[in-house]
């Protein structure tokens, strides 16, 4: 659930303006809460429930209200703060790990607003890459549904993705090729030897996968290596491997230092 929380008529109007923009329709269920009462209890409950929150009000109000329930950047949902004129978008909490930076960039682009980044790394030109592994002859619907789920979890759309990547034994995997063609992505595959240096960046390591293909994780390794190759910078996972009955998928990111 995404909640826009507004405290003024102008803020409510801005929230409704954002919701009216078709490009935001790929997000989860979205509501506008105007002057919810009791305010602190309502906001804290939504935060603890994992709702993504967009506040259109002063930053100080948000911090004082959320302070008692903030845990850490790996668990807390993303939080954005907008001014009621829609000139600035601030990823306030869980900007990096939680996805508020990417989300904030989308909101800012939609409004023609300025994204105010305060995290340490300059998010000037991110390159997003997908990594996927699958059973042999995996049906396209298993690949596509998993991919769309992965992107939705990070507030991304297919046009945000630079390439689809896997291990070289999947170079002839019919429906990985078909998925890349459908979304007009480059399809890249890499040898186990090429993927091996990504091992320290993996979220988990599977001994079974290592014994089978020679790397501890196909989806994460392939996404990370592609991001590194495309940008020449240290890559990072923004979505750890997720899976369904027949496939795995991960999302990585690098930054072009222009």
UniProtKB/TrEMBL annotation:
CobE/GbiG C-terminal domain residues: 129-252
GO biological process per UniProt: cobalamin biosynthetic process
Cited InterPro entries: CbiG_hydrolase, CbiG_N, CobE/GbiG_C, CobE/GbiG_C_sf, GbiG_N_sf
GO molecular function list: hydrolase activity
Chain ranges of the Cobalamin synthesis G N-terminal domain: 42-120
Superkingdom: Bacteria
Keyword list, A-Z: Hydrolase
Protein name per Swiss-Prot or TrEMBL: Cobalt-precorrin 5A hydrolase
């Amino acid at each position: 659930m995404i909640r826009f929380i507004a405290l003024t008529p102008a803020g409510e109007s801005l929230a409704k303006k954002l919701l009216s923009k078709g490009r935001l329709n790929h997000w989860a269920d979205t509501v506008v809460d105007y002057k919810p009462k009791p305010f602190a209890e309502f906001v804290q409950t939504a935060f603890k429930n994992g709702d993504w929150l967009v506040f259109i009000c002063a930053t100080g109000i948000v911090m004082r209200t959320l302070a008692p329930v903030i845990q850490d950047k790996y668990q807390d949902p993303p939080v954005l703060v907008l001014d009621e004129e829609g000139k600035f978008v601030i990823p306030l909490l869980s900007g990096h790990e939680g996805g508020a930076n990417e989300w904030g960039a989308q909101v800012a682009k939609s409004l023609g607003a300025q994204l105010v980044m305060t995290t340490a790394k300059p998010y000037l030109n991110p390159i997003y890459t997908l990594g996927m592994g699958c059973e042999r002859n995996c049906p396209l619907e298993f690949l596509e549904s998993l991919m769309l789920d992965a992107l939705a979890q990070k507030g991304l759309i297919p046009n945000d993705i630079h390439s689809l990547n896997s291990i070289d034994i999947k170079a002839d995997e019919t429906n990985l090729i078909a998925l890349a063609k459908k979304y007009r992505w480059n399809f890249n595959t890499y040898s186990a030897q090429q993927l091996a240096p990504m091992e320290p960046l993996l979220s988990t390591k599977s001994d079974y996968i290592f014994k089978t293909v020679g790397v501890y994780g196909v989806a994460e390794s392939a996404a990370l290596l592609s991001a590194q190759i495309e940008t020449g910078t240290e890559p990072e996972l923004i979505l750890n491997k997720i899976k369904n009955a027949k496939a795995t998928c991960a999302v990585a990111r690098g930054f072009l230092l222009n």
